Amino acid sequence: MTKLMTPDELEAALRRIGAERYHNLHPFHRKLHGGGCTIDQVRAWALNRYCYQAIIPQKDAALMARCEDRELRREWLHRITDHDGLDGNEGGIERWLVLTDGLGFDRDYVVGRTGALPATRFATEAYLHWVTEKSLLEAVASSLTELFAPKLHEERISGMLEHYDFIDERVVAYFRKRLDQAPRDAAFALDYVRRNARTIEQQQASLRALTFKTEVLWAQLDALWLAYVEDMPAPGAWRPGEGMREVDAAA
Ligand SMILES: O=C(O)c1cc(C(=O)O)c2c(n1)C(=O)C(=O)c1cc(C(=O)O)[nH]c1-2
User: Is the CB–ligand 1 distance for residue 152 below 6 Å?
Assistant: First the structure.
C-alpha cells in the first residue's frame, strides 16, 4: 500500500524517476554526444529543440499567473527573463538562436517552427497545458527534470566540442549558462515540493508530474530518431537543405 513518505524518501523517489527515465538515457543523446550524428541530424535536433526553448517561458508565465503566493512569484520570475532576456542579458532563447545560426539556419525559419516535427510540437504544448491545468504543486514538480540536466549539459558541451568541427564555444554558450541556472532553479523547486507535498495524494501527484515530464522529453527524441535516423520525417517536416540562410545553402 502506498504510504506517506518523509521529505527525504520523497526526494529519493523523485531521483529514482530521473535515474530510470531521464532523457540522458535516450539513444539519440548517446549518438549526439558521442559524435555519431551527421551535421543534418544535429541541425534537426537544434531546430526541433527550439520548440522546447520557446515554450519554457510561456509555461513559467502560466505557472505564475495562477500563483497567489507573492514569494513564489518573486522566486519564479527570473526563469522568464533567463530565457527571454532583459536589459543587458540576451537570454537563453537568443543563445539558442546563436546555436541554430552556427548550424546555418535562417532565424525566421527556426522561430516560425513550421519545420518542427508534429510530435515535437505536441509534446512541448502538452507541457504548457499540464502546467496550466494541474495543481501548482504538480506544475512546480514537473520542472524537476532540471535536477538531472547539468550532468547532461556537461556531457553535451564536452562531447560536441570534441566530436564536431562545426561546434565551437560560441554555440555551446547556451549550455554553459544553464550549468549555473539549472542547479539554482532545481534546488528551489525541490525544496518547494519537499515542503508542500504533505499528503499521500500530493506526493504521488508530484511523482506523476515528474514522470510525465520525462515523457515530454523522451517523446521528442523518439520522434527525432524516427524522422532523422530511420529517415521517416512527417510530411512538411524539415528536410536537409531547407530553412538555411542563403549563403549557407549555396555553400
Ligand atoms: O538540454 C536538456 O536536456 C534540458 C533539459 C531540461 C529539462 O530537464 O527539462 C531543461 C533544459 N535543458 C533547459 O535548457 C531549460 O532551460 C529547462 C527549463 C526547464 C523547465 O522544465 O522549466 N527544463 C529545462
Answer: yes
Give the residues across from 244 on adjacent strands.
Answer: 105
Cβ of residue 145 lying under 6 Å from some atom of ligand 1: yes
Rounded to two decimals, the pTM is 0.95
User: Which of helix, strand or coil describes residue 193?
Assistant: helix
Averages of pLDDT over runs of 10 residues in the chain (251 residues) are: 94 98 98 97 98 98 95 96 92 95 97 97 98 97 97 95 94 91 95 98 98 98 98 97 79 53
Q: Please report which residue ranges of the chain form alpha helices under DSSP H.
A: 7-21, 27-33, 39-65, 70-84, 92-102, 107-112, 118-133, 136-141, 149-163, 173-196, 200-224, 246-250
Q: Indicate whether residue 56 lines ligand 1 (CB < 6 A).
A: yes
Residue carrying the nine cell digits 529517415: 231
Domain 12-234 has CATH 2.70.98.40: no
Could you tell me the residue ranges of all domains in the chain? 12-234
